[in-house]
Each structure stands twice: as structure tokens, then as C-alpha cells.
């Protein structure tokens, strides 16, 4: 059994496996411009973040009904549970669905149906995080948050994703202020392709509690010192970083150096259907390539629960942490 862990950086649309994409396309009377799942999978060679995003947005067009979103989340939760995930904080991209005429209520209700039964069915607890697309306008982000108002019982926080370079966090100051007023937790992707300065902006302007990726923080020693001192978690995604060429090869990934610098890093799968592995696959691959010791793997698992938004369920967090300490390799 893999070590118990929380997954804190996971885009539900990025769990759409080619086979399920074909199933949903057929169910909705849509045609995909690929002969079969194998031909589609052969397209999963990316030059950078944008080349991945192009396919990611194209393929998620098969998601149309509440049932589609339930089936998508159900498939992820089953796979995650098998990989030792006990708690998942799941991103979704409503603007990409709203743009296709799929209402917010359809997306949230569909996801919530799978998430609500996951503790019983899979032994996995969850939170839902609404992401704004940073390559759409701040006005569109504000409209999206307004559209989510009736569903905030299901939503724990907001995030910021999509094409990073040239779309700094500071553009989204107002909508993050509104999210804070609504009692939502705040995270943002920063320092994946964008500079360390975007990590600073996410902290200072958006008030985020965690940084998603944060890889390029290592270019700025004063920022690293600040992240260590304030114990700001970084949700690192090793296989994603290799596939999107943020790092050349896994053995050159800064994860080990980040851990040794005292950063609160966690290991996550980002878009596992596209990047070649789920949570435990990422942890194993990173541990092997970087020769992480058992103590370091246990620390990563501990970090994942400590960095989670389980502040409203401290007993549960304590129980998960106890499982991590009791785990034998
Ligand atoms: O890795 C990512 N980075 C930015 N946006 C995204 N949207 C899905 N996955 C990603
Ligand atoms: Zn991501």
C-alpha cells in the first residue's frame, strides 16, 4: 500500500483519460478528430505549457452534462485512492465550461455528486477550488465568482491557472479581495513558467496561502528565505514539470534541494491523464530519480496534510498525520 497522502494540486479536467474522452464524446454525439484513444495519447508530447493547454481545452469540450462531471471525478477518485490519496483538494476551470454554454450549476453539481460520496466509496475526503483563467480578463474572473455565489457551500477556495507568462497575479487583485470577503481560501499558480516575481505578487497582492508549482522561487534566495520562514507550502508537480519542459529531466528537478532548503513542498500530479502519472507515480518517480530517503518521502506526505485546508476538521488531519507516522515502507 502506498504511503497516505493529500493531493493539493490536481485539475479535474486534467484527469480526463483518452478512453473516457471517447466515451463521453460518443454519449454527447460529438466527434473527436482522432481515430482512437491510442492516436490521441500519441499527441501527448508538449513543448511548453501553452502546447499542453491547447489540447487540454480542446479535449474538455466533451464534458457537457452533470453526469459527465460526475463520471470524470469518480474515475479520478478511484485512481487516487489506489495511489494512497486520502484527501484531495481539486481544482476546476468553470470559465472553460461556461464559454461552451455549460452552466456553473451543472459543473458544480456534477462534481459534488462524486465528491460527496467519496469518503464512503473510496475513503477519500475532498475540497473544491475554483480556478480563474489568468489568460481571460479580470472582469471575466469577477463574473465567474459571481456565478459561483449560489454554490459556495461546495467551494473552499479560489486559484489561478492557465497561461502564466505575461499574465501576472496583480491583474486579479480585486477578484481575490472579493473571494477573501466571501470567506474563501486563496491559492495561485506562480513560478511555473513565470518569474519568481510572480510568486512574490501572489503572496503580496493576492494574499495566497499556498503557491502552486513555485519552482522558479529557487532563482531568488531572499524569496526562498521568506517562504521557509513563513512556511508557505509549494505544491510541486514533478512529472508535469518534465512533460512541460520546466525542467530537462527528473534527475535535474530542484525538489530535493527545495526540501533541504526547508521549504514546505508537497508532491502532486497536476494533470495526471496528460503527464504520465497520478500522485504515487509522481512521488515514486521523484524519489527514485532524486534518491530521496524514506525520511524525505515521509516528510513530503506529512507536508501534504499540514498544507491542506483541513483547518475545519483538525481531528481528521490529526488522524491522517498519525497514519503517515505509522506507515512502514
Ligand atoms: O499545469 C498547469 N499550469 C497552468 N494551468 C493549468 N491548467 C491545467 N494545468 C495547468
Ligand atoms: Zn496546475
From TrEMBL:
Coiled coil: none annotated. Catalyzes the hydrolytic deamination of adenine to hypoxanthine. Plays an important role in the purine salvage pathway and in nitrogen catabolism. The keyword Hydrolase applies. The active site is at residue 192. Its cofactor is Zn(2+). It comes from Streptomyces tremellae. InterPro entries: A_deaminase_dom (IPR001365), ADE (IPR028892), Ado/ade_deaminase (IPR006330), Metal_Hydrolase (IPR032466). The record marks 213 as: Important for catalytic activity. Its EC number is 3.5.4.2. Residues 4-315 form the Adenosine deaminase domain. Belongs to the metallo-dependent hydrolases superfamily. Adenosine and AMP deaminases family. Adenine deaminase type 2 subfamily. It comes from the Bacteria. It catalyses: adenine + H2O + H(+) = hypoxanthine + NH4(+). Keywords: Hydrolase, Metal-binding, Nucleotide metabolism, Zinc. Substrate binds at residue 271. The lineage of its organism: Bacteria, Bacillati, Actinomycetota, Actinomycetes, Kitasatosporales. This is Adenine deaminase. Binds 1 zinc ion per subunit. Zn(2+) binds at residues 9, 11, 189, 270. SUPFAM superfamilies: Metallo-dependent hydrolases.
